[in-house]
Amino acid sequence: MGQHAFQNFGFPKRDNYSISHWLQSVQGDPLLNHRTTAELPRSADIVIIGSGMTGTTIAQNVAKTWPEKKVIVLEARQFCSGATGRNAGHCKPDQWRGFIDYEKVFGTEQALKILQNEQQTWVQVVQFIKENNVDCEHWSGDTLDVPITPRAAKIAKETFEKYKAAGGKVDHIKVTEDPEKAAQISQIKDAQACYAWSASTLHPWKLAAHIMRDNIKKGVNLQTNTVAIAIIQSKNHRDKWVVKTERGDIECSEVVHASNAYSSALEPSLRGLITPCPHMCNKVVPPKDSKNLSSLKGSYGILLGQDNLITINPRLNGDGAILFGGSNPGQDDFWEWLEKNPYRYIDDSMTGFNSISKAIHEFAVEELKGWSTEDIMRQEETYKHAWSGILGLTDFHSLGNYLDFQASGFVLGIMDNTELVGTPRTSPSDAPNNMTRAIHTFRIRRLLNRIHTHLYSKPDLRCFGKYDQKLDVQNIRAEIEKWRAEIPPTPSNASEELVLFTTEDWYDLEYNYTILQLYRAQIIDHRAETTDGVFFDCVRAAESICQSYRSQFLGKRTSCTWTALHELFLAGLTYLHCLWTSPAARVACGYGKANATCNDCIIALVVMAERWDAAAPYREIFIALANRTMSMMSDRIVESASGNVTSAESENYGKEDLTEWMKIVADAGVLQGYNGLLTGITRE
Q1: Confidence band, pLDDT 50/70/90 cuts, at residue 459
Q2: Count of Cβ atoms closer than 10 Å to residue 307 Cβ
Q3: Neighbouring residues of 177: CB distance < 8 A, sequence distance ≥ 6
């Protein structure tokens, strides 16, 4: 995909949007245009923006945990008319296929936990449906992943075997490697193999509607056809927000962004982290009286090799329609078209794309038994009933201020059996539990987000009158110190799964990383009157991060992740930057401590690169920069002793290196979030 997709953001299309299979089937349902109160309330405790599955289930959990809180759910259009109401109806846990990609990004341990979490999530969804008698056309049975090319079969087998060798649970996955048997089981002519495990299909709108109706009974206020157009800080209450809508303003204490692909339209810090991108879903209705068509059972993932996938959802408990989704070979032409029409990235009015419909037609006629002999199934027109939905894409390789800011990851990561879902303490004197530490984690995430919004985003409606950035930084620093002072002790029943919320070292890392983010804007701005104290704080924070990562990785089987790599790299660059730009920092550190800290960072990066090829460019860049910096430190010592150093010589020394260093960084593909730390190194 091109750059347009990762620069786009916008609001949902108000009129003439496409109608999905699910939305078409519930036309006339009063919940679609429901407003709990005729007038929009002017205040609330929590405002949730978005009424899809995310917003609906968040409202459910809030109503359960804090029944006394006033909750408003805003929906720009009809209830659940976004991505949830437009998907292909699968509730399918990935049990092995994504393992290699997850392992590359998050490491082996976390990759296994991600797939385990998918299974746990599916189990709980099915349990909820059954226990609450949810009428959502639910079906559970075998889902089949079927590679239909030799290359796809090879990739599938390699992935499955690597997952199994890493300790992944595979006892419940039925594997058929004989092509003839696989074709018989799957009813796919060119099946090379077949992987089967339990999954579900359902009517997503009806599931969300069941939950929302219960929410409304418990006091949640749903307001459809109400667009949130801006979020600003309250003029009257510093700790509150004002959600501005076309129907009036709502003042509240908390705002939850649950509009997924559209979230970046309202929240600038999500731009580049969550990006809208359209996908198509096609509906095919076979003749009911035909006896020649293959009997598709369950749900399917047709693996075509490369990155292409066709999903199939036969509506076994529905109306008999067959839904085709995924990313088929026709998607490539669609991407090219979007590059030329970037404004369509947020447009769900599209009712089909020729190359996508054509790819489905070709697959069905060639691979599905009996479809080539049925006259109606041979016609391309049969495959052109489609609708569009907007996905919220996440870039795993985000850098700088977006690092560690959680938008949606915790929703899937919090499971009942890990004791994170529960009631928070009502008094500081109560014994801390896992929820206590989870909430404390969210607080530092909010502070990081505030730093990004206030210090690194362009001015927006949040700012009123004269803005005092120096005072704002002081206030944020005070809140960071307060957060650190209030870190709860580790509960005695902390489990391994909750290591994120129970490790003291992790809290120290978060504290020091937040300090670096708070002051980065100051230390890279040569016009700012940055005090020695700020440089000292950055040096101490960077030293601590480098030492901590060396301790975590040296001689231990710690998984390497993008978060760890970027956090360490940022700390290392900040440290070098301070040595170049602050004479006081150079004197305070001295050659010995500076050399030790550089070695800490290098050792950690070397270990990371040995375990993960993606870390190699970062290792090479930092080694080059550290060597030059230590040479500079050595030269400064000699020059200081001889009393023969001039500002012109100092400036030339840095400028000669700067061009080469920037080229190293650019050639390695490191994003521009670090450029400021490099461009300022020659200024004193």
Answers
A1: very low
A2: 9
A3: 157, 193
463 within a domain of the structure (yes/no):
yes
Which helix (H) or strand (E) covers residue 582, if one does? none
Alpha carbon distance 106, 112 (integer Å): 10
Q: Comparing 310-314, 406-410, 429-433, 441-445, which segment has the lowest mean pLDDT?
A: 406-410
Rounded Cα–Cα distance for residues 681 and 658 (Å): 8
Q: Is the pLDDT reported for residue 681 higher than 90?
A: no
346 vs 8: CA distance, rounded Å: 8
Which residues, in sequence order, are CB contacts of 34 under 8 Å at separation 6+?
A: 79, 216, 222, 224
3-state secondary structure of 229: strand
Measured distance CA(662)–CA(651) in Å, rounded: 16
Instruction: Write down the residue that tokens 């699968």 correspond to.
Output: 90
Residue type at position 54: T
CATH of the domain at 262: 3.50.50.60
C-alpha closest to that of 544 among 493, 592, 510, 579: 510
Domain shared by 628 and 640, yes or no: yes
- Domain interval for residue 191: 138-200+276-394
Residue 104 lies in a domain: no
**From CA 42, how far away is CA 242, in angstroms rounded?**
9
Rounded Cα distance, 172 and 273, in Å: 35
CA gap 562, 546 in Å, rounded: 16
Only one residue has tokens 């020091």, namely: 512
> Under a CB-based contact definition with an 8 Å cutoff, are residues 521 and 456 in contact?
yes
Q: Domain count of the chain?
A: 4
- Collapsing DSSP states into helix, strand and coil, what is residue 381? helix
Nearest C-alpha neighbor of 248 from the set 271, 223, 269: 223
Is residue 106 situated within a structural domain?
no
Where would I find the beta strands (DSSP E) of 333-443? Answer: 386-394
Q: Are residues 365 and 427 in the same domain?
A: no
One domain, residues 548 and 675: yes
Query: Tell me, what CATH number does 380's domain have?
Result: 3.30.9.10
pLDDT digits (tens, 9 = 90+) for 282-313: 999 888 766 666 678 889 999 997 778 999 99
Q: What is the mean pLDDT of residues 196-216?
A: 97
Task: Say if 120 falls within a structural domain.
Answer: no
The candidate with the shortest Cα–Cα distance to 348, out of 550, 580, 85, 131, is 85
The helix or strand, by DSSP H or E, that contains position 492, with its residue range, turns out to be: none
State pTM to two decimals.
0.68
pLDDT band of 678, cuts 50, 70, 90 = low
